[in-house]
Amino acid sequence: MSLQEILSVLDQYPTLKGLPFNGLTQFLRMACLARPLIQFQQLDRRIPPTCLQLGVLELLGTSLSNADLDLVALCWLAFKEIVWNHPEVRPTEEEVIEYNKAALGRGTYDVMTLTEPMTHKATLYTLRNGVLPVYTTSLYCRGCNRRYYHNNSVHKQSSLRTYYGGVPHVIQVAQHFFMESPLLELFSNGMVFGWLSASNWARIYNSALAKIYPHVANNKLAYPSTLREPVPPTGWTMEIRNEDVMNGFLLYSILLEKAEQRGILVLPHDEANHKDRLQPVLAERNKEMEGIGQEAYPHACDLCFFVFEAEDGTLMKIQTAHCDGDTIGHRCCKVHDCKVPLASNRQHFCPDHQHIKLKCAVIDCTDNSTSGFRTCSNPEHHALETAYFTRGKSLHKLRSRLKKTGVSVPANSIPEDYDDDDDEVIIESGRDGPVEVDCDGKPEGGNRRLRAYFGSRRTHNEQLIMRCCGVILSRATLYGSEAVSAVNDFAKATFPSPQSTPEFFIFDNNCKLDAHQRAIHDRHFENTGKPVDVFHFTCKHKLTDHHCQLYCNTAAFPELIDENGNWRFNTSICEQTNVWFGGYLSVVRDMEVTRYNFFLDEMIKRRNRYIIGELERKGHSPWMVPMDALFP
């Protein structure tokens, strides 16, 4: 510790300036010697406690001539950070004698021996050493009534498991399976940059990383050697499963976040499986991510934050926000815009709307379906159902959605049986009989034709708001459609204060959004320009649309054009980002909604970190706007 550090603390605690210098140095050395004892009493050893136990206070008080315990407590409060981060102190012989004289008589050494070992077989999946059969042992402390496991402890009278602070090198992802953190980091990066699903990662690991010499084992004709393949031990599972990859990724991500926030992870202990155990903490994190929850939310850099001098000499800034949707979705209730989660992915209706599954699948038909059918007894309605089941089982629905996103990444590299009832299909009566129509299509000739909905329904799209440099600020799920009212609510949740609203909000349907805001007298974005990005304005907006030409023509905003006549900001960033985001269509298609939201938010978080790192490397000076400037 330096004298400057001590003086800085004394300035904050002037009451301590009257302490003798010799007494202060003795207190600091005694506190450093007592640090292992204090750490032993902590759940999280990274953070010094604010208050000490009575025995420890009395111990430290001996260094201050048995001073008043309130003064000792104040000294600890003032110097705890210095003590906690100080290198290990080598005590003198005299200090050892004085410490033992003060400590042993106060019963401060109450370390208990752990007993009642419980051991079982487990499998450790490593990054560099393949798959290892191991044994894991938990021990019980009769003093604190806790059983200590590899990553956590459980009190005898509690149904909660409390994790130790920080991120362990080896993480227990299930009762019999452990994974190294470096391996889980590899899984995470493959998901971000390669759109790799848990199924594909499991297959990659089992083929290339689980074996000691994979290049030889996988290419035996090229290596006609005498390499002897190891015989799998009896009683161990040596292949990694896709559910363990996903559980490991989720638990690892939560532990990382808790460590970054200096928090402790607490999970239910008595749940039947890891999926149910993680559910509450995933839902809590999802709630925190809504609106302004992404860590890169206050991001700014030279590409997205422009400062210029106005005519009166004042400095003005311009920030743009860009909004667009991507046709990724999770399973949802078939009732339009219903946001109640499904009880399981095999259900078509939420618990509140289960009664509707008894109704005919034809729109506006109120009759019950007949036994063994999804339509009523009306022959015309039966014809639509017959067309649905005879159209042939194929992957054309998924492939068409992948084609829209511009990518084609299957969730599983090995084809599996495909349940054609998984995706929503619309059958409509046509001139030449029932035909299948696109989910976004409208009936020909108005609404006169019969329409029936079969299969499960998915949410309409994922909406993103980002900066023009590529950093994503926020994400929201739109259920029924990309209605401008829903986009308006999403934008207000992302920019809830006047200080946080951007100078320009770029959206391909800004003309309708602006008209909606004016119609409902919503003035939240009254100081925000709403141009349509260049591509959509040129190709998809009519010259006769007076409102669009008057309020949303990008050329009408000179601030968006630099001195060379070029666009100052990349107004098409959403289209470019959607190429990356759309790659997750097949990866998340079967995810339960809580995991779905957590996964996408985590992908965005990790990608943002990479983007910001690249901005730094390229000299674009990324920084964070203080949150109190956005929300004073």
Automatic annotation (TrEMBL):
Pfam families from the UniProt entry: CxC5 (PF18718), CxC6 (PF18721)
Residue ranges of every copy of the CxC5 like cysteine cluster associated with KDZ domain listed in the record: 113-208
InterPro entries on file: CxC5, CxC6
Taxonomic superkingdom: Eukaryota
Domain CxC6 like cysteine cluster associated with KDZ: 323-386
Protein name per the record: CxC6 like cysteine cluster associated with KDZ domain-containing protein
The species this protein was found in: Mycena alexandri
